[in-house]
Request: fold
Amino acid sequence: MSLTESSAAEIAKSASLASKRLATLSTDARNEALTALHDALLKEKETILQANARDVAAAKQAAANGELSQSVLKRLDLSRPGKYEDMLTGILSVRDLEDPIGKVTLRTLLDDGLVLERVTCPLGVLLIIFEARPEVIANIAALAIKSGNAAILKGGKESTESFTTISTVISNALAKTQIPIPSIQLVKTRDIVSSLLAQDSLIDLVIPRGSNDLVRYVKENTKISVLGHADGLCSAYIHSDANVNTAVKVIVDSKTDYPAACNALETLLVNEDVLNTVLPPVAQALIAKGVTLKCDASSKVALQRALSQAQAALLQDSTESDYDKEYLDLILAVKTVPSGPSALEFAISHINTHGSKHTDVIITESREAAETFMSGVDSAGVYWNASSRFADGMRYGFGTEVGISTNKIHNRGPVGLEGLTIYKYLIRGQGHAAAEYSAGGGKTWKHQRLPL
Reply:
């Protein structure tokens, strides 16, 4: 990894050249680099956490001044229990995954001595723009190296101390491996993002990791393909036959396990039939965790009857705009779904209209209802009786991820190694000419599918 203040064109060109060399390295060479990366970050943990503490201290002051959101502050802190260890585990998990490069996914005998293959290969050059989230540097470096891609990383000013220290550790580690130095570059130059976004002839994919404003800015200001999501507006629907214990466990985890994450729950839809049975214990468990409930009229009335006076006093009235918000905090919007045969259709329609196509959940004991919901909801992840927090590359077994995609082209959901590859078609012949297969050419296609 190199820490650079070069121009955008120079950065992109050196990354492009490095990607060509990186794509030809052996699996062993790339895996050895990941081992070196892991060991260096483990050895320098205290140094990195000290640098991160300086960033967090400055961020807390900025948050106190109203200049930084609490969600960004939470994402910045590497000392959060398990966060640093998860980063290290992610590197080894990526190392131990099957090599995604050079896999033959199709083989066809076009004619005798003429074979077509479809083979996986790296995308090329990745541009990752992130706010806070210093662990992104290690995650992306690991995924990029393993998948044979070069990566350019641009961090936000709130994580300057962290990413500068981490980049130095990674750079020193990779210098002792076969990885070309410009394969992983961390950009320090301020105000360079717009120039990097203009390098569409050299950069193959942009991955923004941060606020909605950042993602929207990137999507509106580049011709390069963008992988990511602007919002993580996740919903859960409690159906009329939901099990109380399942509902409490799944909903509380979805909302409170890590409220600042993009896969945290933001909207709770409740079937009218269970307003007085399932919703109250769910609400009590959420309130006990410090969650503020913004309720529509029906759900509020039901909870005012069931909760204690002190708990009921904490309820707030919702507005229609509350169902379009990503709170990233201990706030949950609650809406009633009319009972009857159209309940599922109502819930699905609400999610497809107000959600962000990230991750959505149904709580039900009915397989038929669950399958209808999972087929009808147009999101990257749709779960039955499981927390929305499972939307994560590590939890999917991808080792780690570069982000969650709500796109419908190439990748969707948590994007790990396979999401950073594309494919090329290879033909091996023996002097074959296409004209021989034209009318009157004398030859005919066999198009015989061969085993992989």
About this structure: The first helix runs from residue 8 to 22.
